[in-house]
Structure of Transcriptional regulator:
Amino acid sequence: MNIKELDPDSSPQAAFGARLRRLRGERGWTQDELGDRMGYSSTHLSSIETGRKMPTLRLARRADAALGTGDTFEREWREMRHGSLLEGFPEFLEHEGRAAEIRLYEVGVMPGLLQTPAYASVLAESAVKRGAITPDQAEERVSLIVERQATLVRTPPPMVFVVLDESCIRRPVGGPAVMEEQFERLIEFAEQPNTVLQIAPFDMGARRPFNLPLYILTMPDRSLMSYAESVQRGHLERESTSVVPLLTAYHQLQAEAPSQAASVTMIDQLRKGTP
């Protein structure tokens, strides 16, 4: 193989492949030999080394094990995988997957944990058209949503409390069929034994304590952390003393918002096109 075929600086994917090839060469291994150690064919490794295929988390971990590189390839994969995400969000996702309780407040769009694939795809495609992300990053975002939603059905499942600003259900995304499916998804979510769904209506006005999206996690050891973001950046807060006031405000939000039954009725009326 001509090593000049790949420019490590051309993309994170190319850098991953170049590192894999370099470390393999330093050990004097052929692609067949490394493939035997990792459980992959030499053809597959060739496509990774030349940047023709995106590595998976499984491959990254096996590369670290075979080459004795600690978690170098796994960290590189995570940076590559989450490169289009806001600061703090990738780390938040790691904690979200282990949380005992998840509380979230969202404004404007459905939260990722509740988005249907069609709804998520419309948002991702829109971001591509604006030039905010690449088509590959759009595909990764949709895949990431599917991975996040798996946390809702793990054993034991977390308790999930969701308060949506009314704008989330009023803002059309995609065509009527996309919104119909999304409304059905919300109603199905509300029927689960480990979930609570409420809509914060516009007429709550100043009684709404938050203006931006917010996530609050309660971990198995009862420690707290929160994640909030603006347009350009996100912030993960791990100090419980800073999170407790947010949790108190969240409880106040839930108390002021209509009940789950009333909220589901509002969603169902929108789904049916009735006032």
In short: The chain has twelve helices and six strands. Residues 194 and 239 are 26 Å apart (CA to CA).
